[in-house]
Design brief:
Layout (H helix, E strand, L loop, with lengths): L1 E5 L6 H12 L3 E3 H10 L3 H11 L6 H12 L8 E4 L5 H9 L6 E6 L2 H9 L1 E3 L6 E3 L26 H15 L1 H13 L3 E6 L4 H16 L1
Parallel strand pairs: 1-3, 1-4, 2-3, 4-7
Antiparallel strand pairs: 5-6
Helix pairs in contact: 1-9, 2-3, 4-5, 6-7
Bound molecules: adenosine monophosphate (AMP).
The site of adenosine monophosphate (AMP) has 17 residues, from helix 2 and helix 3.
C-alpha cells in the first residue's frame, strides 16, 4: 500500500500519517521531518536547507528527490509507505513516477487558509517521534512532552504567521496542481485512487473516515 498525503501545511497530514502508519504497518516518510533532523544535526544537508525552510520556501527538487529515492529503496518500504510532504512539485511527482513505484492512494486533506493560520500558532511537534499536537485541540497528556517518548515538544521556527502565509501561497502555486496531476493519472492508468477529506473534522473523525475508505478500497 503506497499512499501520498496532500494538503496545505497544518492540514493535519503529520497527525493522520502517524495514525495510518501505525494502523496499516507501513513506514511514514516525512521529508519535512528528515530535513529538520538534518538541520538539528547541522549536517551539510542541514546547513544547506535551513535558510530556505525558515523562509517558508521549497528546498530544491534535486535535493528532495535524492533524499526520497534513497529512503524508499530501504527494505522497510517493501510492504508500502506513506509520504507526508512529498511530492510538493510536478517535477517531484514525475521523479516518483520514474522510479516505477505505483501509488495506490492520494489523500487530499482540505482546510481553508484562515483556519490553517489559527491552527499553526498552537501546533507543537516532537522532533524525534514526529508526533504532532495542538495546545488546545490535541494536547499531550503532560504539558510540553511527547506522550510516547517523553521528549520535549517544540514550536517550529516556520510556524509564525508571516512564514505560514508564505508556505500557503507556495502550496497553492506549486503543490495544489498535483491534485489534477494525479486525477489525470487515475483517468489514464487507473490509479491512484484520489480521496478528498474535510480536514476541519476532529482528528478522531478523520482517522475513522480514512481507515474506512482505505479498508474499503483495499477490498
Ligand atoms: P513540512 O514539515 O512538510 O511542512 O516541511 C517543512 C519545510 O521543509 C517546507 O516548508 C520546505 O521548506 C521543506 N520541504 C519539506 N518537504 C519538501 C519537499 N517535498 N520539497 C521541497 N521542500 C520541502
Amino acid at each position: 500500500m503506497r499512499i501520498i498525503l496532500l494538503g496545505p501545511p497544518g492540514a493535519g497530514k503529520g497527525t493522520q500519517a502517524n495514525l495510518i502508519s501505525e494502523q496499516f504497518h507501513i513506514p511514514m516518510i516525512s521529508t519535512g521531518n528528515m530535513l529538520r533532523a538534518a538541520v538539528a544535526a547541522k549536517s551539510s544537508l542541514g546547513l544547506k536547507v535551513k535558510a530556505v525552510m525558515d523562509a517558508g520556501k521549497l528546498v530544491s527538487d534535486d535535493i528532495i528527490i535524492a533524499l526520497i529515492e534513497e529512503r524508499v529503496a530501504k527494505p522497510d518500504c517493501e510492504p508500502g509507505f506513506l509520504l507526508d510532504g512529498f511530492p510538493r512539485t510536478i517535477p517531484q511527482a514525475e521523479a516518483l513516477d520514474d522510479v516505477n513505484l505505483s501509488i495506490d492512494y492520494v489523500i487530499e486533506i482540505q482546510v481553508d487558509d484562515e483556519v490553517i493560520v489559527k491552527r499553526l500558532s498552537g501546533r507543537r511537534v516532537a522532533p524525534t517521534s514526529g508526533h504532532v499536537y495542538h495546545v488546545h485541540y490535541n494536547p499531550p497528556k503532560m504539558e510540553g512532552l511527547d506522550d510516547e517518548t517523553g521528549e520535549r515538544l517544540v514550536h517550529r521556527d516556520d510556524d509564525t504567521e508571516e512564514v505560514i502565509r508564505k508556505r500557503l501561497s507556495v502550496y497553492h502555486e506549486q503543490t495544489e496542481p498535483l491534485i489534477l496531476f494525479y486525477e489525470q493519472m487515475m483517468q489514464t492508468i487507473g490509479h491512484p485512487q484520489c480521496i478528498k477529506i474535510d480536514g476541519t473534522q476532529s482528528v478522531h473523525d478523520i482517522q475513522i473516515e480514512l481507515a474506512r475508505l482505505l479498508k474499503e478500497e483495499k477490498g
